[in-house]
Here is the input.
Amino acid sequence: MNSVRPSISRACLFLLLAVAVIPAAEAQVTLQIGGGAGIAVPASDYAGTTVDYYSGLKYGLGSGLNLHAKARVGLLGFRVTGEIDYSTFSNNGEALPGQGKVEVSQKVLAFKVGPEFHIWLPVVPVTPYVGANVALNQFSGETKFNGITKVPSGTYDLKSATRIGFGFTGGALLKLGGFTFLDLSVSYNLMNVSGKAWQDENPTKDERIDSYLTLNDDADPLFKAGDEKHFIGNSRAMNSMQIRATLMFGL
Here is the structure.
């Protein structure tokens, strides 16, 4: 009989702890979802001019639009965010000084996930945060050439390609009232950390236009200085910065 009483006591203690802890944990589970827009700015080798693009030095892209959907899940102070992110970049200008015209555009569809760390400030209805993510980036686009002797005039589609990247974010959550928040953020994205490759779509033709038909962010293995057909001698970093506003709903 005496051995039964401690067992009953332990069971009661466990039940009391469960009743106390489980609601507390549930109270700290948060979920926010929303969407927004912003500016996407190319950086590193993803920026530059159309002369850089034609010469194979950089991608020569300019700023564009970003649209995104975002979800934020929190549990006991730890937060994870997930995003679907669509950005556009474009530019137009000369192929060489005083020669020919180029219009280049790319679109990036990204799927991102990663942790986020909030910095609580007393009284103030603003919560700063920092975050990081791993991203799966899918690239597509097109290029238009006109009046260039070494490349046939026309519109050429870029073969879609996928790269793995990483990103870093800093921002602030502003509570607008009730379950509504304004999420303002700035992020820097390294979009082709893994998966760089060189791909020749028409190896039998061996023409300059071949180098523009795929992403080709790695060096051309046939590169030779002064070669007009194999002119991309270095791998290229595709980075971007985003300045965004997101309307979030939830706890």
Confidence is low (pLDDT under 50) at residues 1-27. The helical segments are 4-27, 50-55. DSSP finds two helices and eight strands in the chain. The CA atoms of residues 179 and 250 lie 5 Å apart.
